[in-house]
C-alpha cells in the first residue's frame, strides 16, 4: 500500500513519524474518514469543512491547501487502485519536546492512507447490528474529531464482551451516539429520533445527508436525546457513518426490534443514501 506522510507518497513500511510527535504522545490531533465509491470521493466538501473546524477549535494550523488535500486523496486512490473503501486522514500538532503546554510554531504532521472495503455490499447491512448500552466515558468535546479514541475503543470492547457488534454510549440517562457512528431509533408511529447536535456528539457528515434524505422522503424526524427505554421500545433502529453509510440495528440491550431483521425505514434510507452518494461523488 502507498501511504502519504508529510509531503511524500511512500510504501507503508517506509513511512515515518517522530516519536516526539504530539499525536503519538498526547493524542493531540484530529482526523477524517472519507468513503470512496467507484474510485470517487463521497461527501468530500463536508469532511473538509469539518476538518477545518476541528483544527481551528484546537488552534492547529491547516497543513496544506484545500486543492492539495484533494490532490493527495486522488493520488492515493490512483496509486492504490482504490475502487471502494475509505481514505483516512490525520493531522497532528507535530513534534515538540514533551510538555503539556504546546508551542505555537510546530509544523503539523499530515498522514493519509487507504483501506479497501466493500461498503455497498457490507455483510452487516443484510443482518443488522446488535447493540449494547455502555457508559459514555469520553471527554466533553466530542464535536471535535480527535484521535483520542481509547474511550470509544474500550466501550466497543465492552460491547463485544457482551456478544454485541457495537455500543451505544449512555450519559445522564440518554444515548449520545455509537462508538464510531451516530445513533437513530424509529418510533412505533414511524418517526426517526436522533440526538440533536451539541458538544456531546460528533456532527456526522453522513447524519446531515441522511436527515436531508429523510425530510425529502417525508419521514418525520425528531432531533432530540432519547433514552435506553425508548430504544428498547423502538420499531427499528440504525446508525450512520462514512464507513458504514446507513447500517440497520436489529437488537439493543438484548431486546429484539421489530421482527429481528433490518427495518424498512433503515433499508430505504440506506438505498437512498447509496444512490445519492454515488451520484454526487466527485
Ligand atoms: N460519531 C462518532 C463518535 C464517530 O466516530 C463517527 C465517525 O467516525 C460518526 C459519529 C459519524 O460521522 P460521519 O458520518 O461524519 O462519518
Automatic annotation (TrEMBL):
Amino-acid biosynthesis is among the record's keywords: yes
Cofactor field: pyridoxal 5'-phosphate
Keyword annotations of the record: Amino-acid biosynthesis, Aminotransferase, Branched-chain amino acid biosynthesis, Pyridoxal phosphate, Transferase
Top-rank taxon: Bacteria
E.C. numbers: 2.6.1.42
Gene Ontology, cellular component aspect: cytosol
PROSITE patterns, alphabetized: AA_TRANSFER_CLASS_4
GO molecular function: branched-chain-amino-acid transaminase activity
Pfam families noted in UniProt: Aminotran_4 (PF01063)
Pathway noted in the entry: Amino-acid biosynthesis; L-leucine biosynthesis; L-leucine from 3-methyl-2-oxobutanoate: step 4/4; Amino-acid biosynthesis; L-isoleucine biosynthesis; L-isoleucine from 2-oxobutanoate: step 4/4; Amino-acid biosynthesis; L-valine biosynthesis; L-valine from pyruvate: step 4/4
SUPFAM superfamilies: D-aminoacid aminotransferase-like PLP-dependent enzymes
Broad class of enzyme this protein falls into: transferase
A Gene Ontology biological process term: branched-chain amino acid biosynthetic process
Catalytic activity as recorded in UniProt: L-leucine + 2-oxoglutarate = 4-methyl-2-oxopentanoate + L-glutamate; L-isoleucine + 2-oxoglutarate = (S)-3-methyl-2-oxopentanoate + L-glutamate; L-valine + 2-oxoglutarate = 3-methyl-2-oxobutanoate + L-glutamate
Family under the similarity heading: Belongs to the class-IV pyridoxal-phosphate-dependent aminotransferase family.
Function in brief: Acts on leucine, isoleucine and valine.
Name of the protein described by the UniProt record: Probable branched-chain-amino-acid aminotransferase
Lineage summary: Bacteria, Pseudomonadati, Pseudomonadota, Alphaproteobacteria, Rhodobacterales
Amino acid at each position: 500500500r502507498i501511504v502519504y506522510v508529510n509531503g511524500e507518497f511512500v510504501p507503508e513500511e517506509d513511512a515515518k513519524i517522530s516519536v516526539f510527535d504530539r499525536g503519538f504522545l498526547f493524542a493531540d490531533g484530529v482526523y477524517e474518514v472519507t468513503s470512496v465509491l467507484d474510485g470517487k470521493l463521497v461527501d468530500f466538501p463536508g469532511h473538509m469543512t469539518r476538518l477545518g473546524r476541528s483544527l481551528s477549535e484546537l488552534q492547529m494550523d491547516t497543513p496544506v491547501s484545500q486543492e492539495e488535500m484533494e490532490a493527495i486523496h486522488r493520488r492515493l486512490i490512483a496509486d492504490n487502485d482504490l475502487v471502494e473503501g475509505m481514505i483516512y486522514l490525520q493531522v497532528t500538532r507535530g513534534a515538540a519536546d514533551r510538555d503539556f503546554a504546546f508551542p505555537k510554531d510546530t509544523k503539523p504532521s499530515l498522514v493519509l492512507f487507504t483501506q479497501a472495503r466493500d461498503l455497498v455490499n457490507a455483510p452487516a447491512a443484510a443482518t443488522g447490528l446488535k447493540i449494547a448500552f455502555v457508559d459514555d466515558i469520553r471527554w466533553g468535546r466530542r464535536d471535535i474529531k480527535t484521535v483520542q479514541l481509547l474511550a470509544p475503543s474500550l466501550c466497543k470492547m465492552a460491547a463485544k464482551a457482551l456478544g454485541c457488534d457495537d455500543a451505544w454510549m449512555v450519559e445522564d440517562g440518554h444515548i449520545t451516539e455509537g462508538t464510531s457512528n451516530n445513533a437513530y431509533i424509529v418510533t412505533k408511529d414511524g418517526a426517526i429520533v436522533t440526538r440533536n447536535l451539541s458538544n456531546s456528539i460528533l456532527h456526522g457528515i453522513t447524519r446531515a445527508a441522511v436527515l436531508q434524505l429523510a425530510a425529502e422522503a417525508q419521514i418525520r424526524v425528531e432531533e432530540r436525546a432519547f433514552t435506553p427505554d425508548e430504544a428498547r421500545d423502538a420499531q427499528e433502529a440504525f446508525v450512520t457513518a462514512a464507513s458504514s453509510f446507513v447500517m440497520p440495528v436489529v437488537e439493543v440491550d438484548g431486546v429484539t426490534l421489530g421482527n429481528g431483521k433490518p427495518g424498512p425505514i433503515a433499508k430505504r434510507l440506506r438505498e437512498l443514501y447509496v444512490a445519492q452518494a454515488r451520484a454526487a461523488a466527485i
